[in-house]
Amino acid sequence: SPKSRPGLLDGLDPEQRAAACAPRGPVCVLAGAGTGKTRTITHRIAHLVRSGHVAAGQVLAVTFTTRAAGEMRTRLRGLGVDAAQALTFHAAARRQLRYFWPQVVGDRPWELLENKFRYISQAANKAGLGTETELLRDLASEIEWSKASLVSPDDYPAVAARTQRDTPAPASQVAEVYRNYEKVKNTAQVLDFDDLLLHTTAVLEEHTVVAQEFRERYRCFVVDEYQDVTPLQQRLLDAWLGGRDDLTVVGDANQTIYSFGGASPRPLLEFTRRFPEATVVRLERDYRSTPEVVALANQVIGAARGRPAGSRLKLIGQRPSGPVPRFAEYDDETAEAAAVARRIRDLLDSGVAASEIAVLYRVNAQSEAYEQALAEMGIPYLVRGGERFFARAEVRQAMSALRMASTDTYTSELVTHVRSVLAKVGLTDQPPAGGAAKERWDALLSIVELAEELASTVEDADLPRFVAELEQRATAQHPPTVEGITLASLHAAKGLEWDAVFLVGLAEGTMPILHADGDDAAIEEERRLFYVGVTRAREHLSLSWALARTSGNRRNRRRSRFLYGLIPEDHPAARVARSQQPKQSGSKARCRVCGGPLLETLDIKLGRCSRCPSNVDEQLLEKLKSWRGERSRELKVPAFVVFTDATLVAIAEQRPTDDTAL
Ligand code: ATP
Ligand code: MG
User: Fold this and answer.
1) What does the UniProt keyword field contain (predicted)?
2) What is the CATH architecture assignment of 112-188?
3) Ligand 1, atom 23: closest residue by C-alpha
4) CB of 39 sitting under 6 A from ligand 1
């Protein structure tokens, strides 16, 4: 547009520009990781604002993680459109609900439930169920799924039966727990995270005056990572739109990683059916990663099955060539973590910034080994998502002190003001010697550091603004940002990028996670999660796994099935893969797990191939034990027995191992 300032659209390629410059109305960008979807929507917002189509304050952009929302705010700020809101669905709903509440309910807003387990436990107990942690956790996620899928307690049993859900208890009992949970929560006047969305939707749907006021205020909606929208979020989005069509969505069906929580790429893939006049743009140039990383990413997602049409684009790397991805196998997790920490030290020494390095894992519990290894080497790190920073007593105290102080008049700078408030709750000038006191001091200091960060990035940042920022982070339970290595789960890493990424713990049972085994849809979701991980790296990518959890333990783990076919020929671990390559035969049957041809009679019977790493089947193993005598003579490698990679290397090299003694 001639009206937009020169330069704004220069940083976009022709397809990105087409999406950014499309007139107001529905726009959909379907594209792979690193192709500039987020960049395109931030530029679109800036373009619409600068060319006078919409005021920045009328834009509401939503995404799924706090960090991604923060990233989007940073990019918008960089483009000079600070007033455009970029929030997670939850933060947006929370903010709106707080605003509507006095008008609609007329009382103080209900408290947000920080820990739902007490309530779930009461509800389970009342329904005659046990209260073991694992069951409560499963019940909690089942209730979360139901709410995200807009399934009421009354409808739950029928839906569970129809969709053949693997319910944590008999469906009628789950429904009762769900009903009881809603009741106890209501009595206590607290809201859980899903209630924020449910209530906001209900208010907009039922209160015309409020809805009108809202629609006056917001006119332009943008959703990033749209492939992970839940029916509940979609309904809120529809309530926001109120029949209007000023909606831009971007997403990548190959990065759907929340379908276990009720999310579905369908609204993304069917966007044009809903809005036939929509501008649709596909991007395939990858600007994030080196061609080496892009090639690996294409291979990972190329192996995925059941990919919907519209998600089969191949990424084309745009960046100069870089180092080849590294694969490494370790005896145990401690050794893996130590090696990763050493490699990080090398990267830091070679000039890579700490904030440009991430260690990504499947489950938060994996962070422990890395925290220890990094701490031992004196490398600063930050844990995202796992640590309940805002649940710490001193942090809560600090927050309430700051909240109280935020109504005072003051003249000092934010860097100084926060410090003086926190001094009252125990932030001394010098750190205590160590132990719990030092931990508390560190936690308080990170709040000060966060204030410093805010003051340096936002002009006239004041205490109320800072408190709002803290509260928003507390909603998502994310610790404040300070300079350090990022430790994060793969789920939390979505949409983000780093120069160096370490994907760790790539062993069966962790990646894919144990409970996905045998469930094709769940395995495919794990594969997409792995794809998300691979595509976070700009330049250095390391993939590692360990054969045992702790040192001295039996090395009973196998590397992830997702690694097969990725490891280069000259890598020691590749010999294993080759030793498992069976001879070709005429069979057309395909393995349920890896999709490869089935060659052996028993394979065909089982529907799984012997070289597939997920192939350890207890019954089969028993059978093999009894067959061993007759088969071992004809087979150098016990083709059906895939114990550990170490065993296979040994077998391939004709060395005796414990396992071959079987
Ligand atoms: P994801 O699916 O992982 O969320 P994405 O499609 O949103 O990825 P972005 O994060 O927007 O991708 O872009 C990836 C990287 O490529 C960013 O560093 C971005 O600045 C850069 N980039 C995107 N488009 C261009 C371009 N046209 N020229 C140069 N760099 C670009
Ligand atoms: Mg993105």
Assistant:
1) ATP-binding, Helicase, Hydrolase, Nucleotide-binding
2) Orthogonal Bundle (1.10)
3) 36
4) yes
Judge whether 16 and 250 are in contact, CB under 8 Å. no
As for the ipTM of the complex, it is 0.99
The domain ranges of the chain are: 14-96+197-283, 112-188, 389-475, 569-661
pLDDT, average across residues 40-56: 94
Ligand closest to CA 252: 1
pTM score: 0.75
Question: Is 289 in a helix, a strand, or coil?
Answer: coil
Q: Tell me the pLDDT tens digit for each residue of 566-619.
A: 887 667 665 443 433 333 344 466 766 666 666 554 455 556 665 554 444 444
Distance 34 CA to ligand 2 centre (A): 7
Residue 518, sorted as left (phi over 0), alpha (psi -120 to 50) or beta, turns out to be left
CA of residue 68 to ligand 2 center, whole Å = 8
Ligand 1 atom 27: the closest Cα is on which residue?
12
Q: Which residues pair with 207 in a beta bridge?
A: none
> What number does CATH give the domain 14-96+197-283?
3.40.50.300
> Once rounded to an integer, what is the mean pLDDT over residues 437-452?
77
Ligand nearest to the CA of 256: 1
Give the Å distance between the CA of 426 and the centre of ligand 1: 43
Q: Which ligand is nearest to the CA of 29?
A: 1
Burial code of 99-121, b = ≥16 C-beta within 10 A, e = fewer?
bbbeebeeeebbebbeebeebbb
Check residue 470 and give its pLDDT: 79
Instruction: Please answer whether residues 529 and 360 qualify as being in contact, where contact means their C-beta atoms are separated by less than 8 angstroms.
Output: no
* Mean per-residue pLDDT, 444-472: 77
The Å distance, Cα 12 to ligand 1 centre, comes to 10
What are the structure tokens assigned to 10, written together? 């220069």
Tens digit of each residue's pLDDT (9 = 90 or more) over 482-527: 568 899 999 989 999 999 999 999 999 899 988 888 888 899 999 9
Rounded-to-integer distance, Cα 456 and Cα 16, Å: 31
- Residue 38 Cβ inside 6 Å of ligand 1? The answer reads yes
